[in-house]
Amino acid sequence: TVRASLLLNKNETACTLVNCLSRFYRICLSNGDFIITLHEELDMIQQYLNIEQIGYANQISWNINCPEKYEQTPIPKFTLQLYTAKKISSTLKYPFISLMSTLPYK
Fold first, then answer.
1. Single pTM value for the model
2. Are the C-beta atoms of 16 and 50 separated by less than 8 Å?
3. Is-contact 59 25, C-beta < 8 A?
4. H/E run at residue 85
């Protein structure tokens, strides 16, 4: 998608993709840590969704809300990101499935 954006002279899109990819991979690598904060996981999801949004020509939308008191909660890396990727895949394959999901928290 970055290459295609550059070939089509969509430099702003290419820049956005490179920035999102670099943030996504920075969190993915996270010094080899397997546990990250919920805030970092949600940031990784945000970058992933930004990339998907460009790849799917603005066919997806989302809203991420997390109470501040949970942001520093430790979580295994990719726990929610994989859920998000699966949701997008299912939604685009079966358009009658809603992408809007709510994960309960207490």
1. 0.78
2. yes
3. no
4. helix 79-93
